[in-house]
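[Automated response] Your request has been received and processed.

Submitted sequence:
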Amino acid sequence: MRSYKSLNNLVGWLVFAIATIVYLITLEPTASFWDCGEFIACSYKLLVPHPPGAPLFLLLGRLFSLLSFGDVTKVSVLINALSALSSSFTVLFLFWTITILAKKLVLHHSGALGHSVPNVPEPTFGQSLLILGAGVVGALSFAFSDSFWFNAEEGEVYAMSSLFTAAVVWIMLKWENRAHEADSDKWLILIAYVVGLSIGVHLLNLLALPALAFIYYYRRTQNPTTLGSIVTLVLSLVLVGLVMVGIIPGLPSLAGGFEVFFVNSVGLPFNSGIVIFLVLFVGLLVLGFRYSYQKRNRLLNTAMLSLVFILIGYSSYLIVPIRSSYHPTINENNPEDVLSFVSYLKREQYGDRPLLYGPQFNARPIRYDEGAPRYVREGNKYVVAEKRQVVVYDDADKMLLPRIYSPQPEHIYNYQKWVDIQEGVKPTMGQNLSFLFRYQMGHQFWRYFLWNYVGRESDVQQSGGLWPWDASKSGVPERVADSKARNNFFAIPLILGLIGLFYQSRRDSRNAFIVGLLFVFTGLAIVVYLNQPPIEPRERDYTFTGATYAFAIWIGLSVLGLAELLRSVLKADSGRAGAATVIGLLAPILLLTQGWDDHDRSGRYNSVDSAKNLLNSLQPNAILFTNGDNDTFPLWYAQEVEGVRTDVRVAVLSYLNTDWYIQQMKNRAYKSQPLPVSMPANRYKQGTNDYLPYAENPSVKQINLKEFIQLVTQNSDLLKVSYDESSPAMMSFPSPNFFLDVDTTAVERLGIVPKDRRKQLVTRMEWNMGKGAIEKKNLVILDMLATNNWQRPIYFSSTVAGSDFMNLQPYFQLEGMAYRVLPLKDPNYQPRGDEGYVAKDLMYESLMKKFAYRGLNDPGVFYDENNLRFPANYRDKFARLANTYLAEGNKAKAKEVLDKCFAAMPDASIPYDYYAPQFVPALVAVGERARANDIMDKMTSRAQVALPYYQTHNPALFDMENQTYLLSVQSVYRAAEQIGDQARASKALELLNQYYPRQ
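Generated structure:
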């Protein structure tokens, strides 16, 4: 018979193999939405992603991408596989962690001291079966839990972050079992190295340190005390703080201080201060080692070695300034020197949130102090580019543990969904804590916990957990009831976890406390630290997989508890262990079978196809303005990895408010020439022209755009205003009415005017900018419009918010998925109507021939709420094109377009959305009344169920869904009226009258 050790290894690797097979089968074959496209692109070419970066992930991703052997379409799946394997190894380490803890419980060798004792007898076969069964149940339950499985399928950092957490816990338990050995400290040094490596992925791993500290304390202390435990907790938190503040940004900050001093004050060349700092720092380390050796101080020597190995692991971050100095195409924040690198590490561009003490939401600033300077190189010195403003609030407007802190109107509106606050009235501590417990902990943590081990209502944002008694689909909207993400685990994983928690607490309270501490610090402590606002752009469950990992340990240990309950029924150890394991396996089997359909992304190509379709909408050498994240990151992937349309320059609107990004846009990138920005760097550097206020001058009725840009470039006094003596003068604009003269002859010579639009060519473009401030991004766009002279096509993505269009819509031409700005005025433009003149030939070529819609016609592929937004955009464009053909009497073309749309995106795979009723009049016109009726009937019947559900089921949380269904019914009503279907129009109107909110 095999030894327990060999069985433990064999079964562990078998669990690893099961997890790996599942992850690889369900893996997404392309770049997912959100940060995945960015991370895959930056891994492939070692570029610089958003702060604070993930250099180790990028390095490993680069290694995996080499396995594509030049086939760029395989790069994304290989980097996704890196996450899958990271998750599989996490499951493996979790298995071994559970078996270590289970072995203690089974062999009862934790003893009075609570630590391992050498020469423990080998477990019997029955005991081995019980221990390994616990490991299998717990590890596979975590492997198939909702959030962790989600992370395993895409090229993001969270799977690898979980791996480091699992690794350090397992290594610490290995140390505990070998702490009596002379060289046991090598395990602690290994932990330090792994912690250092984890910094180059994500900081979540650091939250495991308090639990590790207690393993150390209990193992090294003969008689642990309450005071000793408190000291251990405090010291562990100090250690976390030292790494997070003292090492990660602290050492580079100190090096930056040396650099500025020795360059500016001593007159040495650039980087001299860094060299001096490194020499001194290494010298101090050498002295520390020498002292520890002379004094034979093992603890100090181990601590010094641990510091060194943390720094060795942390050194992966050197890739950031090294790669940035080569000015790659993605180079966020441009952290090429030590000073900008510190800003990058500190995520300064994102601002901060109050944590323990700070202002509440309606606090009023009493003054603005000068903060830390931001240095840039100029000549042979560092000069202050700007001094960041620090907002100072009255102490009366501050409070402890401020949870209700954001003054943004959208946030205030959403705060009021959870607590009864009033604008102008300081929230009470009771309201503050109510928001902490109800929203931040309840909604943003415990709800996610229920998703993983109880059940999940659906993929609709804000959806709750699904308890067994709430699983009925009666009265539930089809969108929720039939969602592949509607998973019912019958709370079995939760029940098993509670059994394991109770059993371990009774038999081994110290290790139960350690697991509990891991659960708290990787769950609730993150909640307190993040201090989340009351609304998020996406669900954040991926953040808390550390807590579900800890709870999975208890799910595994429940096998021991079940075996104990079966002792009176089954006397044989092996029979009892087998029965308990079989019962325990209900949890991972339920998790796997229920979660398969919503975690299987193997047929999903939506993200990358949407990016390629947008790029292929554009004319050669185009400039494209986009929003961030899902509008941009898939485009970066398509260009950087697959080389799609590298002649197009993608300009992210939010980034255009920063000087580093504008400067990068003025560099060539692949086939794209620099952007036509005429302003010199000193006119858009940070702190200069960040926004231009409206300062009315009655004598100025209109502003010539070209002259305005010249005045801004010259820093002309004609545009300067000052609001008080203490504030510096700033540029402004005296009238909201702008115009741009057009050289029509030159425009016609360029051949950019379609034949059917020649009469719409204008000699002067006129538009109203409004009286709000002109942000830097708007100023840059205006500069390009004035400077470009129509040489390069300028587009806005159709997903860009209307507020960023600057009221240029009368001059938009819809081409595929983007609006092109042309000196052609649409005679039919209505401010409340559709945007963009439909260039039907270009639209037909794009929608019918160029675009890819892979998988959108497959009902077996799961498209969550976010993935459904882009097909809805396609439908809108198909409807626009079909209606354009009908307007000119071309029914054959219109029918062809409609047939293509419904073949590519049928209701069975992409349910009818808000845009679907637009097809009704067109379908009737081409003789497809049955399909038109089907759209109206399905949307009305779905709304009949959804509206009462959302107006009685947490209506405040689902106000967006409620509004969307009302707008859809409104669209059905208009469509039915348009085709003269009074019966269906009356039905829709009755529904609107019943549920439309009345003032």
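Summary generated for your ticket: The radius of gyration is 31 Å. DSSP finds 38 helices and 19 strands in the chain.
If you did not submit this request, please reply to this message.
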